[in-house]
């Protein structure tokens, strides 16, 4: 079965039709589709989740959860090492900003729990949509900047986290966090950070 053209309206029928012939099921990329397939397979076969880190795929009870395996660090633990490092370096406040995906929600929830455990102070929690245009992202960056947090945690995907990093840089304010921890933000660095943005990756930590 070719999962490349994942169709949310037909995946259940596709699985029902083919599962008797499969030894292992590999879902399509993404936390949402991965969890859809885990639920649909319902423990009948092992499921190898290669492109989704949100905990939902791994937290099912009984045989459904027992047969799910992953290749990524779980999303809730993405920021543990980064937050530990910036806290050790003297950062005490952190602002959180996330997009509207299940993966990002799991990442930022885990980051908040870790920051609290370290004794860091939350500067605030902000959200945006993956479909937001540059102007909307810029406005959200302005809101985050009012926190004056030492560190910004950005939970998202390549296109929107890169926009957010650039939006912070373009603000006409003195806000300059000591570090930015952002998922998927250092993919395709040569393409995403050119000209006046070329030095920005030096202040970014990308967890996986």
Give a description of the structure.
This protein is α/β, with parallel strands linked by helices and 208 residues long. It is built from eight helices and seven strands. The strands form two sheets. The chain has a five-stranded parallel beta sheet, with helices on both faces. A two-stranded parallel sheet has the order 1-2. The model has no long low-confidence stretch (mean pLDDT 89).
Short description:
This protein has 208 residues and is of the alpha/beta class. The protein contains eight helices and seven strands; from the N terminus they run ααβαβαβαβαβαβαβ.
Give the terminus-to-terminus CA distance. 29 Å
The major sheet is characterized as:
5 strands, parallel
Strand-and-helix sequence, N→C? HHEHEHEHEHEHEHE
Q: Structural class, judged by helices and strands?
A: alpha/beta
Strand order, main sheet: write it out: 4-3-5-6-7
Radius of gyration in whole Å, from Cα? Answer: 19 Å
- List unreliable stretches of 5+ residues: none
Q: Tell me, briefly, the overall form.
A: elongated
- The oligomeric state is single chain
Number of DSSP-assigned strands = 7
Fraction of residues in H or I helices:
25-40%
Number of helices: 8
Mean pLDDT: 89
Report the β-strand fraction as a percent range: 5-15%
Which key terms come to mind for this protein?
five-stranded parallel sheet, 38% helix, 208 residues, elongated, alpha/beta, two-stranded parallel sheet, 14% strand, 8 helices
